[in-house]
Amino acid sequence: MTEGADTSAPTPALDTAYFQRWLERATEVVVEQADHLTELDSPIGDADHGSNLKRGFRAARDAVAEQRPATPGALLMLVGRQLVSSVGGASGPLYGTLLRRTGKALGDAPEVSLAELAEALRVGVDAVSQLGGAVAGDKTMLDALLPAVEALPGSLAEAGAAADRGAVATVELRARKGRASYLGERSVGHQDPGATSAALLVNALVEVAGDE
User: Fold this and answer.
1) φ and ψ of 47, to 5 deg
2) What letter does residue 174 receive in the DSSP assignment?
3) How far is CA 132 from the centre of its chain?
4) DSSP classification of residue 186
């Protein structure tokens, strides 16, 4: 996320093509950052977060290219299903739930507004919270997603910046959910890999906004 990014830029058409660009960029970023995500996961998790997400997003990209979903909602639901079926550990069901529920909330609209995306993403984030039993401050992906959802009605750039800040803030948190919670106070001082990958995915929405 570039410091001082223009948050007043017009919002692009949030149509199927936009979310296809997001998936392409998200896959690129996950592949580029896979080793870093795994390094973050090593001291507090199973040391597989990056490799799992890389496999899942590549599978999702291939599925979208083959099936060509016609709407943003259908695309996100397809990506979510692929992540559930191809990503191991907890991240597959969590990210799969996030995207499936977000896609379902978007419905069959061929194009959605920023406000509609924010509302649908909130539905997805709430579903993740219910599935994992986590809340803000538990040192999970929610610590990046919740600030992003709060900021999203303002602009995509604001949501990306909020997700980044949320991910960095997990360094000082004690994990209360997931494998990292077994470490107790020893989990403090490590950035949460799930919050980090969530911030990457939110910022992929920002990065492709101008790619018409």
Assistant:
1) 60, 40
2) P
3) 15
4) G
Report the topology of domain 14-207.
Answer: 1.25.40
Q: How far apart are the first and last CA of the chain?
A: 20
Give the Cα separation of 143 and 172 in Å (integer).
12
- Domain borders along the chain are 14-207
Place of tokens 């960029």: 25
Span 13-46, pLDDT tens digits:
899 999 999 999 999 999 999 999 999 988 767 7
Q: Where are the alpha helices (DSSP H) in the chain?
A: 16-41, 49-67, 72-86, 91-106, 114-132, 142-151, 156-169, 193-207
What is the DSSP secondary structure assignment for residue 14, as one 8-state letter? E
Nearest C-alpha neighbor of 164 from the set 128, 102, 124, 206 = 206
- C-beta separation of 134 from 94 below 8 A: no
| pLDDT tens sequence across 150-199 | 999 999 999 999 999 999 999 988 777 666 665 567 668 789 999 999 99
